[in-house]
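Can anyone check this?
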Amino acid sequence: MTSTTVRHRTDRRRRAGAGVIGALVVALTAGTVGGAQAAGRLPAPNAASLRASIAGLPNGHLTSAVVLVDGRDGRWSGTSGSGDLATGRPVAADGRFRIGSISKVFTATVVLQLAAEKRLDLDGTVQQYLPGTLPASYPPITVRELLNHTSGLPTGGDFGDDGSAQWFVDHKDEGWTPQQVVAEAATHPMQFAPGTAQQYNGTNYYLAGLLIEQVTGRSYAQEVEQRILRPLALRHTSVPAADDTRLPHPTAHGYLTVSTPDGGTRQADVTEQSPWPWAEGGMLSSAPDLDRFFTALLGGRLLPPAQQAELFAVPDVPNVQNPNCDTGPVTGRACFSTGLMRFTTPDGSVLWGKTGSRPGYSNGVFATRDGARDLVYSLTPTSREGASFAAQYGIAAAAFDLPALPGH
């Protein structure tokens, strides 16, 4: 380990991801970060705890970890494990990884910027901006309902994916267009009336990406580049072309464990794979770039005040996917805002962030709203279920001075 002290899936995988998210919320709410946050200060990052949170890699579940903790109370970065099992090269702290659903935060930011420019209305409907895209039988669905997952739209199908590691290894270069994803989802009935509940759903963000292209007349990639990547000098962040399976300068190679004919197992390299999740989950970035992006976003550099407020506006509706989306007085209620996710502790303190994963990569970005501290991590799990809750919580606990999990 080295360290420096100085910040579209199948329904089965959606459920697995939701479980990790829900568990993380529950565990975060078991902590007592509130006192330090309320005072606007946190202790300096605990280097020993952070090193311990990613020690012992590679192991049977993870091959590497990259962690960056930043904020006005101090900075720490560290790596662990192997960047390439074949060559033994070290992990690159500034390398790129597949950020998965953290892409949604970029998408939401662009949509909010377009709203600020009066080029779209958050209360305008998908049917208004993308006529003919959804079945005529569907009720009106607003742009805001897409972004905060209260649309009630059905989730997409599996396109033949059985959820196994071997299936993904065999099909990792294949993909589907956003139009195909939305069209397949639209063969199913609505899940609930728009605005009455919240269900985390990638279909919403494929539509948000298509909306960006319809309103601007430019590609989603061009809009993200012009509005976010260039102004913030995020040189290691990109929206790959649909047929570009490469991951330039990776933090580490991603692997999945698959069976061999002799009854054993091997680690199949899935670093190169289709970026077809696109505006929902197909982007590439690095820990330093995500740190810079999140700091700018929470600091109000990317959005005017009215749209900045939308980032923290969580609808007061039930969460139908995960009853533990939040705890305390809002148990079972929505926890996703317009692009972010809220973590509420029993004493009322709040963290804001987003998780994201693709096969071979599990990532997260979390922060205190006041900028006292933010955390970026990327792990390389060898299961399609992603990194375990315990592994992710251990890093968050070290970064935000939370209590350890019982039995860990």
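Reply from J.R.: I decoded it. The longest strand covers residues 62-70.
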